[in-house]
Amino acid sequence: MIATLEQPAAVKPANESFPTVSATRLNTWLGCRLRYYFKYILRLKKPKTAATYVGSTVHAVLKQWNRARWRKEVLTTEHLQSLFDKSWAEDQKTEPVQWQPDEEPDEKKQGWALLQHYFSQSPIPPDERPEGVEVTAEADLQAHGLPKLIGVMDLIRSKGRIVDYKTVGQTPKDEKAIHNNEVQLSIYSLLYRHATDRKEGGRELHQLVKLKVPKLIVTPQGPMTDNEQTRLFKQLESFVSGVEREDFVPSPGMQCVMCSYFNECRKWS
């Protein structure tokens, strides 16, 4: 029986030994089941790519910037750049990065340029205090025959507006950005509702575009619809049944160009 909004009581209880599920886990599964196997079952470690590292460092500084706003503190440009430099250096000590020759200085310069652009162009008023920053939450979906969802929301603005930060390589179109991030934003909506017992005020993608001259694209959405929640539940049910069947097959396509498990995948049989 498919788990849906209309029939939560008709499905079997979730397997209590099944792991919790995050947006990253589910998106990995939906993108390629064999990649999920390499990453979460075999736990094969891979160095971060340059793009991933720039994104994680930008996120780290935005977290500190939003926390300062929550505390009603003001961080100077010099302080923010110091935070960026420290995060850039420290994180590589625990997670190696797969730099190409002479690549790191340019990537670091671009990462700071993205942040400078966001600080000057952010649509969030300076006096708006966040409801939460880097909010960890969970949602128990056992009543729907599904595992527990977990996640960390980048920012919750006033009136319960959920913000997710992205660094992207090209200017996104709104419809495609909403589609590509539907799973993650739907999970965040569920997490917010379970944590607060109220509906979120909306969702926003704040996308920093890595161009020679950086751009900020803000894509607003309303609260999660019933149809979006049903789609998410069906995706989760497919995930659970597939993992239980050990249905770890490759999904060859354009996405393979950037996959860090390409060589392992080619040896699969």
Q: Specify the CATH architecture.
A: Alpha-Beta Complex
Indicate the structural class: alpha+beta
Separation, N- and C-terminal Cα atoms: 32 Å
**What is the tally of helical segments?**
9
Computed over alpha carbons, the radius of gyration is: 20 Å
Question: How many domains make up the coordinates?
Answer: 1
CATH class designation: Alpha Beta
Low-pLDDT ranges: 1-17
How many beta-strand elements? 5
Q: What is the helical fraction, as a range of percent?
A: 40-55%
Please name the CATH topology: Lambda Exonuclease, Chain A
Name the beta content range. Answer: 5-15%
Overview of the structural elements:
The chain has helices spanning 23-31, 33-41, 50-70, 77-94, 104-121, 174-180, 182-196, 226-244, 262-266; strands spanning 132-139, 149-156, 161-168, 202-209, 215-221. The chain is globular, with a radius of gyration of 20 Å. A hairpin with a 5-residue loop joins β4 and β5. It is of the alpha+beta class. A five-stranded mixed sheet has the order 1-2-3-4-5, sandwiched between helices. The protein has one domain: Lambda Exonuclease, Chain A (Alpha-Beta Complex). α3 (50-70) packs parallel to α5 (104-121). The model is unreliable at 1-17 (pLDDT under 50).
